[in-house]
Structure formats: structure tokens, C-alpha cells
Amino acid sequence: MDVQTFNELSPAEAEKLVRPCLDVPRWMDDIVQGRPYTDVNELLDRAEQSGKKLTPSEVNQALAHHPRIGERAEGETEEATLSRREQAGLGIDDDTQAQLKQGNAEYEKRFDQVFLIRAAGRSSQEILAELRRRLQNSPEDEVAETAEQLNQIARLRLEGLFS
């Protein structure tokens, strides 16, 4: 899709298009209401600025649409398809899978949320190292890191829509 076509969509159509990038109503409204955009970079900048304002409740809402790292997203939604694509290149062997499963359980016990990280461009070993590092975060720091990861994922997904 090009930006001009996006600018011409109805608000409902534009929202439906960006929802799989980050399913947070305030963020989607901000992107849709920011139209018209002159180019993709302007749209991406708006999305990034809006994503930097994610609240803890918005982070929780967005996490509902993300599977555990190392687990295959189920369903036929656009979010599930994107998640499967993003994790496809990780090349997770059985040992790493077991370590991720254990790390995910520890993380969920500590933070009461799923561990989220931008998988695209990372190896399974990098993700595992980040999981271990982030287990040492305070709850407040972890919400901030999760929000940043959501913002990075949203940007990559938007770039994919407009490439």
C-alpha cells in the first residue's frame, strides 16, 4: 500500500489496516487522525512518537495479542500471521526451546505478563540473553522495556505495510 491510498481510506478502513501493528485504540486513533501523511517516514515518525506514550494498561492490552516467544502463534488473524513470520527465522533448537520455556515461566511468575521482544533481526541466543537480563528489571523498568519492544514491533509491521 502507498501512503496516498492510506490517506484516502475511511477511518474504519485505516484503523483495520493498522490494528495488527499495535492493537491499542489510542495509538490507532493517533495514526488515523494524523492523516494525511506526505510520505511513509512522516507516518512512521507519528507512530513512533505515539508509541512512546504507551501506558501500563495499554501495554497489557497489546500483550493480549502476542504469543510467548518461541511458541507458534495460533489462529488465522493478521496478528498471528505476523507473529509467525517474525519468529520464523529464529532457528530454535530443542535445548534453546527448553531454556525459553523455563525463562518464560520465570518471567510470567515475576511480572505477571508474557515476555515480549522484537524477534525480527535477532537470534534465539540473543533473545534468551535478553530474557535473562530482563528478569533482573524492576516491574516499572520492565513495563518501559516492554513498551519500547511493542513500539519497535509496531514500526516494523507498519514498514511492512507500506513497503
UniProtKB/TrEMBL annotation:
<keyword id="KW-0456">Lyase</keyword>
<dbReference type="InterPro" id="IPR036778">
    <property type="entry name" value="OHCU_decarboxylase_sf"/>
</dbReference>
<keyword id="KW-0659">Purine metabolism</keyword>
<feature type="domain" description="Oxo-4-hydroxy-4-carboxy-5-ureidoimidazoline decarboxylase">
    <location>
        <begin position="7"/>
        <end position="159"/>
    </location>
</feature>
<dbReference type="GO" id="GO:0016787">
    <property type="term" value="F:hydrolase activity"/>
</dbReference>
<dbReference type="GO" id="GO:0051997">
    <property type="term" value="F:2-oxo-4-hydroxy-4-carboxy-5-ureidoimidazoline decarboxylase activity"/>
</dbReference>
<protein>
    <recommendedName>
        <fullName>2-oxo-4-hydroxy-4-carboxy-5-ureidoimidazoline decarboxylase</fullName>
        <ecNumber>4.1.1.97</ecNumber>
    </recommendedName>
</protein>
<dbReference type="InterPro" id="IPR018020">
    <property type="entry name" value="OHCU_decarboxylase"/>
</dbReference>
<keyword id="KW-0210">Decarboxylase</keyword>
<dbReference type="InterPro" id="IPR017595">
    <property type="entry name" value="OHCU_decarboxylase-2"/>
</dbReference>
<keyword id="KW-0378">Hydrolase</keyword>
<feature type="compositionally biased region" description="Basic and acidic residues">
    <location>
        <begin position="68"/>
        <end position="87"/>
    </location>
</feature>
<dbReference type="Pfam" id="PF09349">
    <property type="entry name" value="OHCU_decarbox"/>
</dbReference>
<comment type="pathway">
    <text>Purine metabolism; urate degradation; (S)-allantoin from urate: step 3/3.</text>
</comment>
<feature type="region of interest" description="Disordered">
    <location>
        <begin position="50"/>
        <end position="104"/>
    </location>
</feature>
